[in-house]
Specification:
The complex is a heterodimer of chains A (about 625) and B (about 650). Chain A is mainly alpha-helical and about 625 residues long. Chain A is built from 25 helices and 3 strands. Chain B has about 650 residues and is mainly alpha-helical.
């Protein structure tokens, strides 16, 4: 991207990103004792940030593509190292930025009365954290991204460590060291990229352009480096054990931010950096990611079901939900990726809301054990409705946000079939060597994963991911039943108060979003469509638009016409012949979906076997009949 | 009124009612709640009627009304709209839902009048009507699924309506989760279908492509999809193996059982398969399976019904059994017969449930039929309507159930299609159906006799308070009883009255299955005679054992074979089996994952182990740097010597 092309405009992204930090700095001069002023100021700052971010939404042009190319703010920074201050936004980061700014005031509002000590520091930590998250979502320079990424860590560390529960020190140290360990690997990866390309740039679009020069081996190692950092953050099984501890010990606000936004940085990292920088490695490792995330879905759901602590239950449910997101990312179809991004937002709303709900109970009862509750629906009906809607959103009931995300992921994964591009256009030797151990099992004989194999893999992954829909209902409804239904036993529960006006300001926006995304998701999908389709087309060029016609003859003609010409006509572009791989001929198949290709292959196959039309002849036993009528009778 | 406005108001009016009653629950006077709830459904019924008449005015081949509201989801290849589609099939369903639903709303106003959560109840009931209508009128599978899960949610909320009772709350949860198992299969089916259908799930489109693209569809895939959808249907329509939630669902208020668990929601599975008949035509083997499952369920549930003592439980098992008949018909390719039975069943079963509600209401919650008896004298309207519906379900000639059940049995006897390995399958299903009909006639009359005839066997103090229910309740009973009599005359096979078949013909004609009738029409009279005889035997036996000379025999039979009796009484212990096999396994898996895999292997060994390892290494290496200069010197000298020695060699 040429820097001179950037139009001069009001630096709205910079404003939104640094407004919370500025608020935090300003709060330093407010005396500690003025709690009301402090709270009001923090609330005002976050609300202002949210309002400012609405301008981003308004200025955002969904018809433009490019990686984080919109509303870009640029400044030269550390010239010697070619490190730039560069913020930008696109359809993928847009909603995550919006989610972050939206949760800002909600988080402050929900912890209005919960924090009894060191309120000022608490609010400052939250505000700094918000700047860190917003920066990480908008940064375009890898070095800048890394700074924001680490910036988030410190306030979170303090939030858990100071305002947390009983085992807060253990939890926060675990969280910090675990995340740090991953980050270091990512830093190595960033520096490798920087050095490899002559120390000229940390800028993501430049690096993506150059990443084509990487060998597949390099790609794979770099991907693993970046991937572990992200996988810890997601968290992907088996890197998840810091999460239940951190979630359970964190104060409500911390849990909400952690679940609502921080975890998304992991999945966002995969989409933003993993996908465009290392597409070949991602394709090769996609089955591994899928397996881990599908396992995470089932495993997280099962463990969640047997928890005694509500907060831990919701924490484990995050492992399950984020598994969904990762399945969608690894499937790499437009539908699944859209679903994954939407599901990130959904999870932020629903799980964030669930943590707020738990915080509401904890603040009054000082317990989170499920057995201490029961029958609350009678006592606090408004709260019961709020919790029910979040529960339904969380288990993906149609009409709520969770359904759209989960359905798109599942159905999109079923759509997903792919072949590794590496053997075709990369350096075949490298790839085949790495893939050799699998070559005869998982992959086709030519080193590329056969269409059939991946059909099976994504089919199984989609089916097992769908299991999450059932298991989710089991643990969430069990929880709801034990907490809200049944007789109202203990006396303490009879003194619970229902949502007041302030709580309603927290609850109503969340509930409205649950239904808005559920009933009219196109508003959200429309803004990300261009970015997502560009990205998936880049990663999987074989996946294109809907086929124009289903006539197999026409399909064949279309395919042949679009081959590069050097390839013998018989070569199947989906699974190219060895000769073509050796010559390095590119096989691109524009304007035809993989699915239509399979249909063509299927059709061809059935022609070859001279399969009869499906409207079969009746079996012999049935032929001695008297009357034949069509229809129901 | 434009088509869009018409169809949307049919669907959205009940939603409006639900929203008003839900948001202002407790703040509106009872009368207002009632009027809002009932009027929205009744107006919706009137609109359905109007739509029906409009449809009828159209030429036979073109009976379709489309209404497009907005684009719901559009991403990649996928495109789903919020749009409604009225054809003869959905028109019929919408009439049943709003018609029977409207009656039950009015009935509820009387039945629930003492309940404190009046507003909440009607809000749920309206929400249910909305969901059911969007299930039926949605023009694509995804919108149908919205309704499908929506009715499941309302069912969950209404079963657990009195949530302070743990058992009721649990029953609601069970219903939702068992349904979700089916929904899981449904979702997988939709996902697979999207791959075949270019991301378009409109029924009209699917119908077109399945008719045109027969050649290019992978037959295994189509079968898989059809099977997945059928598993979805077994959940919602309470068939083997997922029927277990329905008997427990009787924990809900009785009008709910009538509306949701008898007349409408549980028939969604049959509706869905009938709607997708063009796809099932490509998977006839699945149809045979459906018929088999239906027949098995019909018999299985009927045998459990024989020994139950809870008035609602008997009716619940009877519902499962009757739904089995409908699936049997669907599986034989006799969609019209299935829809016919669906309709008559909606009338007489709703009537039976409402009648039982009337009884329970009057007896202050007593549900055990052993403690009833002789109620006919005190509740004549309830008794008469109940008797009418009982005769309808038992297949007494000239009542509605007779015609529809007879049609199903006849179709089972005669039909054959490509999915059947032998023509005898149909004959077997026929015999099974006949035995189930015998059981049905028996347990239904047993229920009637024990409840309404003989002497009152309950506690003396309640006897005085037994009274006939208010008009708002009996009105619904009378209308439904009337329909249980005349509802059958729309389709009389042997008399060549085919009103319903002609009406539904366009839905089931295109791309449909090739069905062969293997037996001549003279056999139709024979099968009819058999089913009449069977019904007679059943009723006679019930009379003999519970009214006539043999009243001692049931107790003696119980004593003679206590283990068999207990086995059936405990519903063949299927619930316990599921509990051990599925819930138990999952629970062990969860505990194993939690305590061993997660806490020990990953967290303790993996994560903290790594930390401990780092600490350990640090400690060992740390010893080398303890600041003792003499030791450094020794190490230095030894090392240097070693290097020199090696170098010089």
């Amino acid at each position: 991207m040429g820097l001179e092309q950037i139009p001069s405009h009001f630096p709205i992204l910079t404003l939104v990103t640094f407004l919370p930090l500025a608020g935090a700095l300003a709060m330093l001069v407010i005396p500690k004792a003025n709690e009301g002023v402090l709270k009001g100021f923090a609330l005002g700052t976050t609300t202002l940030t949210f309002v400012a971010s609405l301008f981003i939404l308004r200025k955002f042009d969904p018809s433009l593509g490019g990686i984080q190319a919109q509303l870009a703010d640029y400044a030269s920074w550390l010239k010697f190292f070619q490190i730039r201050y560069f913020l930008g936004i696109d359809g993928i980061s847009l909603w995550l930025v919006m989610l972050t700014t939206f949760l800002g005031p909600i988080v402050i509002l929900s912890s209005y009365t919960a924090i009894k000590q060191r309120l000022k520091e608490f609010l400052i930590a939250l505000l700094v954290l918000q700047t860190g998250m917003l920066g990480a979502f908008t940064a375009l320079d890898l070095f800048l991204f890394y700074i924001f990424w680490e910036l988030m860590l410190i306030p979170m560390y303090l939030l858990i460590g100071i305002w947390g529960g009983k085992d807060r020190i253990y939890a926060t140290v675990k969280f910090f060291i675990y995340t740090m360990a991953g980050s270091v690997l990512m830093l190595v990866g960033i520096l490798y990229l920087y050095v490899k390309f002559g120390g000229e740039t940390f800028l993501l679009p430049d690096l993506i352009k150059k990443a084509g020069e990487l060998s597949v081996v390099e790609q794979t190692w770099l991907f693993i480096g970046f991937g572990i950092a992200f996988a810890i953050k997601v968290p992907l099984f088996p890197f998840h054990t810091w999460l239940p501890d951190a979630h359970t010990e964190a104060p409500t606000a911390g849990s909400v931010v952690l679940a609502g936004v921080l975890l998304k940085l992991g999945t966002y990292g995969f989409v933003r950096f993993g996908m465009p920088l290392f597409p070949d490695a991602l394709r090769m490792l996609a089955p591994v990611i899928m397996a881990l995330s599908v396992w995470g879905i089932i495993y997280g759901a099962a463990i969640s079901w047997v928890q005694k602590d509500v907060k831990r239950l919701v924490a484990y449910s995050s492992v399950s939900h984020l598994g969904f997101v990762m399945v969608g990312v690894a499937a790499m179809t437009e539908e699944a990726l859209t679903g994954a991004i939407l599901q990130m937002v959904n999870h932020g709303i629903c799980t964030g809301g669930l943590f707020i709900a738990i915080g509401f109970l904890y603040e009054q009862r000082h317990t989170r054990l499920i057995e201490d509750f029961g029958g609350l629906a009678k006592q606090i009906p408004k709260f019961a409705v709020f919790l029910m809607i979040l529960t339904l959103g969380s288990i993906g009931l149609p009409g709520t946000n969770g359904f759209i995300g989960e359905f798109l992921i599942i159905a999109g994964t079923f759509q997903g079939t792919f072949t590794p591009r590496a053997p075709v256009i990369g350096r075949p030797g490298d790839f085949v060597d790495m893939a050799q151990p699998f070559a005869h099992g998982l992959f086709g004989s030519d080193g590329g994963m056969s269409v059939f194999t991946f059909k099976i893999i994504s089919g199984v992954a989609g089916g097992l991911a769908a299991l999450g829909v059932l298991l989710g209902a089991i643990y969430m409804l069990s929880m709801y039943r034990r907490v809200m239904f049944g007789p109202l036993r203990s006396r303490a529960n009879r003194e619970l108060r229902d949502l007041n006006l302030r709580d309603m300001f927290v609850a109503v926006p969340l509930v409205l979003l649950v239904f808005w995304i559920g009933l009219y998701p196109n508003f959200f999908i429309g803004k990300m469509r261009k970015s997502v389709s560009e990205l998936t087309e880049y990663v999987r060029p074989e996946v294109r638009r809907r086929a124009d016609s289903l006539d197999p003859g026409l399909l064949r003609r279309t395919l042949c016409a679009d081959l590069s010409g050097k390839c013998p006509a018989e070569c199947n572009p989906v699974n190219p012949s060895k000769a073509c791989i050796k010559k390095g001929i590119k096989h691109r198949v524009p304007r035809v979906t993989m699915r239509t290709l399979h249909m063509m292959v299927d059709a061809e196959r059935s022609h070859r076997r001279i399969r009869l039309p499906l409207r079969l002849e009746l079996p012999k036993a049935l032929r001695t009949t008297r009357t034949t009528r069509k229809g129901g009778k | 009124m434009s088509n869009t406005a018409l169809l949307s108001s049919i669907v959205l009016l009940p939603l409006l009612g639900a929203l008003i009653n839900g948001l202002f629950a407790g703040r509106l006077p009872r009368r207002v709640v009632e009027v809002i709830a009932c009027s929205t459904v009744i107006v919706s019924f009137l609109f359905s009627l109007k739509a029906f008449l409009q449809l009828m005015a159209l030429p036979v081949g073109a009976r379709e009304i489309h209404a497009h509201l907005y684009n719901w989801v559009a991403v990649g290849n996928f495109r789903f709209d919020v749009a409604f589609y009225l054809d003869p099939l959905s028109s019929m369903m919408s009439l049943i839902i709003t018609g029977v639903g409207g009656l039950i709303h009015v009935y509820s106003a009387g039945y629930m009048s003492h309940d404190p959560s009046y507003g909440r109840y009607f809000s749920y009931l309206n929400l249910f009507t909305f969901s059911m209508l969007s299930l039926v009128l949605g023009n694509n599978i995804l919108l149908m699924f919205l309704g499908w899960e929506g009715v499941g949610l309302c069912s969950y909320l209404l079963i657990g309506f009195w949530f302070t009772d743990v058992q009721k709350a649990k029953a609601g949860k069970k219903a939702f989760i068992v349904n979700r198992i089916g929904d899981l299969a449904f979702i997988v089916g939709v996902g697979l279908l999207l791959g075949l259908a270019d991301g378009n799930l409109d029924f009209t489109y699917l119908r077109k492509v399945t008719a045109l693209r027969t050649l290019y569809l992978d037959p295994m895939m189509v079968k898989g999809i059809c099977l997945a959808f059928f598993i979805g249907a077994t959940g919602k329509s309470a068939q083997i193996p997922l029927y277990v939630w329905l008997p427990d669902a009787m924990a809900g208020p009785t009008p709910v059982s009538a509306l949701i668990h008898a007349a409408t929601m549980v028939t969604a599975g049959i509706y869905m398969i009938a709607r997708l008949n063009f796809m099932y035509a490509l998977a006839p083997e699945v149809l045979t399976l459906i018929a088999g499952v239906g027949a098995a369920t019909a018999l299985f549930a009927a045998t459990i019904g024989i020994v139950q003592r809870d008035i609602k439980k008997v009716l619940a098992y009877s519902t499962v059994s009757q739904l089995g008949y409908m699936f049997l018909a669907v599986g034989m390719g006799a969609y019209t017969a299935a829809m016919f039975h669906l309709m008559t069943h909606a009338f007489f079963k709703a009537c039976l449930f409402l009648g039982s509600g009337s009884v329970i209401h009057s007896l202050h919650g007593e549900q055990d039929i052993i403690k009833m008896g002789g109620l006919r004298k005190k509740m004549p309207v309830t008794a008469l309507t109940f008797l009418t519906a009982t005769m309808a379900i038992s297949g007494v000639p000239l009542f509605a159930g007779f015609f529809s059940k007879d049609e199903i049995l006849w179709k089972a006897f005669t039909n054959a299609h490509a999915g059947m390995t032998t023509v005898y399958w149909g004959k077997i299903f026929f015999v099974v159906g006949l035995i189930a009909a015998l059981c049905t006639a028996f347990y239904m009359f047993r229920l009637y006799f024990l409840t309404f005839e003989g002497e009152y066997r309950g506690p003396k103090e309640t006897e005085k308070t037994i009274h006939e229910s208010p008009v708002s309740m009996t009105l619904a009973l009378v209308v439904l009883a009337f329909l249980s009599v005349v509802g059958g005359y729309v389709q009389i096979g042997f008399a060549h009255v085919h009103l319903l078949e002609d009406w539904l013909a366009p839905v089931f004609a295109v791309g449909s299955l090739n069905v062969v009738e293997t037996m001549g029409h003279s056999w139709e009279y024979a099968t009819m005679a058999m089913s009449v005889a069977i019904a007679g035997v059943g009723i006679g036996a019930a009379y003999y054992l519970y009214m006539g000379a043999g009243t001692k025999i049931p107790a003696r039979m119980m004593e003679a074979a206590p283990r068999l009796y207990n086995f059936v009484w405990n519903k063949y212990k299927i619930d316990e089996l599921y509990q051990v096999v599925f819930v138990g396994t999952y629970r062990s898996f969860a505990h194993f994952s939690h305590r061993f895999a997660d806490a020990f292997v990953i967290d303790f060994l993996g994560v903290r182990g790594t930390g401990a390892l780092a600490q350990g290494i640090g400690r060992v290496i740390g010893r080398l740097q303890n600041g003792d200069v003499q030791r450094y010197l020794v190490v230095f000298v030894v090392g240097l010597t070693l290097i020199l020695y090696l170098w010089l060699q």
